[in-house]
Specification:
This protein has helices at 2-25, 30-41, 46-49, 51-57, 63-84, 87-92, 94-120, 130-142, 146-155, 162-189, 194-225, 231-250, 255-264, 271-297, 308-335, 340-350, 354-367, 372-387, 389-397, 406-411. By secondary structure, the protein is mainly α. The protein has a single domain, classed as Na+/H+ antiporter like fold (Up-down Bundle).
């Protein structure tokens, strides 16, 4: 089992690196290639061309083990994203992030409900009420891919700009709202609202504890770390990341947000933050994170979308999802005084859905709220909206996205 797992991990990571490098060569983020690498190794291509090879490389008893490795990678990466955030800058943009995130949830959610009632009602599974089905579609339309967005910001070198920081903050806040809505939908699907109310209450309590109790403690530990051996405090940080991720996963939100929140409470400019990041970055970015993207792609079966009518519905899903997210964020950003170019770029960034969409879709599939055909259509939507992010950024900002800070753009005549 261990030997087979190592072979599968090597093949998946090698494929993701090769395909990712190819996408980087054509000025697309590497993360897109890493996502598609998993699809190429899965049932959509390798499973159809050489099913025996796919069955040997990734048998049923190996895939869950590979999934555990991938989850550790993405949890570690989200901790690093939180570690690099400037909390003082986030405080200054709290109002902007709230406005943008709410608009990025409400508008696509409403359009998703309308689309469900007018065009998707026939695709609802037997026994699922229209209200429950429409609510889940609205949530699926509202998600932004937090980890994928973070990778795109880093690849384009705009993570430190005003638009980049606002996009990441808004995506984090928006996804927390979306996960709470998803918890409500899941609770209703399980014929009870008590679980969803418990999830919301426990999430608020955990965030409050992290900001009021854990953050001052992390500040004291970071200050005491200066000029001392790093091993004990680094071990404490790793322990804190794992515990925070476990708590948020246990209460029904997601492990990613616990890891991100723990990273965010550590001062980003401290020696402790620099030491921990230096020890984790190479392993996480080069090894574990590509495994997560590739593994998630293995669960995608694009062959389920076939026929003119199915592709027409799929195109409509893509159009409505993009219009809701980009349009809602654009209007909100303009109301905050942002330039047309920056508002358009922010909308394009928030339209990135990626693999967080796949997480939501898998929950819906497990609950029986959506069918396998609709699952495949929304997977296509997630891929298309993620692929469109970089081209839309170049349309909004011009060809030199990575070399021109957003603040300079806003001041340019």
């Amino acid at each position: 089992m261990l030997a087979h797992l190592v072979v599968a991990l090597v093949v998946v990571i090698a494929a993701s690196r090769v395909v990712g490098a190819g996408f980087a060569a054509v000025r697309q983020p590497r993360v897109i290639g890493e996502m598609l690498a998993g699809i190429l190794l899965g049932p959509s291509l390798l499973g159809r061309v050489a099913p025996d090879v796919e069955a040997w490389l990734l048998p049923a008893d190996i895939t869950p083990q590979l999934g555990f490795v991938a989850q550790v990678g993405v949890v570690s990466f989200m901790f690093m994203v939180g570690l690099e955030l400037d909390s003082s800058a986030l405080g200054r943009s709290r109002r902007e992030a709230t406005v943008v995130s709410i608009a990025g949830i409400v508008v696509p959610f409403a359009l998703g409900v309308i689309l469900t009632v007018t065009a998707l009602s026939s695709l609802a599974p037997v026994g699922v009420s229209t209200a429950l089905f429409a609510s889940f579609i609205g949530v699926a339309m509202s998600v932004t891919a937090f980890p994928v967005l973070a990778r795109i910001l880093v690849d384009h070198k705009i993570s430190k700009t005003r638009v980049g920081m606002l996009a990441l903050t808004s995506a984090a806040l928006g996804d927390v709202i979306a996960w709470c809505l998803l918890a409500i939908v899941a609770g209703l699907a399980k014929t009870g609202s008590l679980r969803s109310l418990q999830t919301i209450g426990l999430t608020i309590a955990f965030v409050t504890f992290m900001l009021v109790v854990a953050r001052p403690l992390a500040l004291r530990i970071a200050m005491s770390h200066e000029g001392r051996r790093s091993h004990p405090r680094t071990a404490f940080v790793v322990f804190g990341v794992l515990v925070s991720a476990w708590i948020t996963q246990a209460i029904g939100v997601h492990a990613l947000f616990g890891a991100f929140l723990f990273g965010a409470i550590i001062p980003h400019d401290s020696k402790l933050a620099n030491d921990v990041e230096g020890k984790l970055k190479v392993v996480v970015v080069s090894l574990l994170l590509p495994a997560f993207f590739a593994f998630s792609g293995l669960r995608t079966q694009l062959s389920l979308v076939h026929g003119v009518s199915s592709w027409w519905v799929c195109g409509l899903v893509i159009l409505v999802a993009s219009a809701g997210k980009i349009g809602g964020v654009f209007v909100a950003a303009r109301s905050l005084g942002m330039s047309r170019r920056d508002a358009s770029a922010l909308g394009a960034l928030m339209n990135t859905r990626g693999l967080m969409e796949l997480v939501v879709l898998n929950i819906g599939l497990d609950l029986g709220v959506i069918s396998h055909a609709l699952f495949a259509m929304f997977v296509v939507m997630a891929l298309v909206t993620t692929l469109a992010t970089s081209p839309l950024l170049r349309v909004a900002w011009g060809p030199n996205v990575a070399r021109e800070p957003a603040d300079d753009r806003a001041r340019a005549p």
